[in-house]
Amino acid sequence: MKFAATSIAALTFAGKARLAAAQEKRTLTVAWDADIDTLDPASFKTSAGYTVQANVYDSPLMWKVQPVAGKPGVSQARPGEIEGGIAQSWSFENGGATLVLNIRKGVKLPSGRDVNATTVKYLLNRGLQSPGYMRILFPRLLGVTNPEHFKVRDEFTIEINMPSPSPMALDTMALMNNALLDPDEVKTNGTAEDPWAANWLKRNTAGLGPYQLVKNQPGVEVVLEAQADHWRGRPYFDRVVFKYVPNEADRVLLLKRKAIDMVVGRSTLSPRNVKSLAAEPGLKTVSVPDTLCHWLCMNTQKAPLNNVKVRQAINYAIPVQAIIPSVLYGYGTEMKSPVPSLTPGYDSTISPYKYDITKAKELMREAGFGKEPIAIDLAVRAGWQPHEQASIWLQTELEKIGFKVSIVKETEATFRQIATKGDHQLSIESWQSWINDPFYHLFFNFHSTAKGTNTSFYSNPEVDKLIDENMHETDIGKRLAAAKRLQEIIIGDAVWGHLWYENWTRVMRSDLVGIEKRWDSYERFFSMKLA
Prior knowledge:
CATH superfamily of the domain at 293-502: Dipeptide-binding Protein, Domain 3
CATH topology of the domain at 293-502: Dipeptide-binding Protein, domain 3
CATH architecture of the domain at 293-502: Roll
Structural class: alpha/beta
Strand content: 15-25%
Strand order of the largest sheet: 13-17-12-16-14-15
Radius of gyration: 24 Å
């Protein structure tokens, strides 16, 4: 409490001095509630780690954004639209099985070394071989299992040789996990036990980007400074300062006092607090549809949730049309399919579920339940306000159909650990697919081999077969037909209790423009400026 009060006082003073300081150095001050756990591009990390990485590194390609109608100064990614990054252009050969990247000339690493095809091959080799996230994605999405599949054709051309065409090849190259690194810098800081310098990269960077990391003080502050000679040009803001503000009420107060310019990160502000700031002078709210799903997760391996009729009954008992306005305040929409509404192949017409307690009770009786209350735990993450609020609604309705629900609040770390082990019965989960493709989404959430992400522990041989057969299918018609069939099966099996799709929502100073929303949802500050 003492630290928080001191931070607010300091930031309030900073807010009063902001206009004067802006004449000397353009500074964007933001608040977040997370710390950087690692800056290793290939690893999965906290939202703080990704937010910084998205600004201090460059990837081979990027998701292209387009202006959002009716929202001046805001742009958003669209499915299948890609633009150049370190690779200024690309092409496909060998019937689509070979992706050729043409590396941008004249780009230099901070060390002064030139960026070329060999530099890019190193980042791809490292992703495939280091103990990180890309070691899983390259084989699954591209079919690439050996560094020899990455071939330097000439100084500024590299080819990625896949066993067959992949509809997700370009999106994979846009992931920030494919950030460019200085090979010599990584090798210098590697060890025999850690040849890819994963430990060193937890707190250090070795790449190029619009900004460079100049300060990383856990629990206090992170500072980025602009790279004057970046190939995109110098960013408008010379400095981006992240202030650690763990308490949401403090973040709201700092916005009102104009001591910060915006709140960033996965956990920014609850919908209720966003709504309370809607009419605040000097502030504005940016909210656009997103691919972020929230659902009631039912462990299909635990009784009585291993009974499909019980899961169907639960779906009919969810008063989602009452929950959404009470919990989201307009910053989200009803989930009508396990596939996000912005994802190609999404079909809102398949689900039969609507709030119907009579139907839910009937299904419970058909399943052999209803005479005695069924004790069941509903786990939520403490501090996730929409989940906590929704859990109370769910508790009330599920008890009407024969359950005795105990709401269990867990820390983020505890929740994730228990979920991964399969020890939750009911829980409220969330997921966002950074590659906006139906089969990427369906694989990680519903394939029986997707350990750690298939939190319902769902297994259906027909689902596995359809996903496997269509993951790399290039015929769009066949892919969409398979995606529809998968939705029919999964909805019929009532694997998820459908809740909502959450909007990407940020509150910021009213004259801040150049807001770009990409599929991973992490802010790029190089595009931002003051109107």
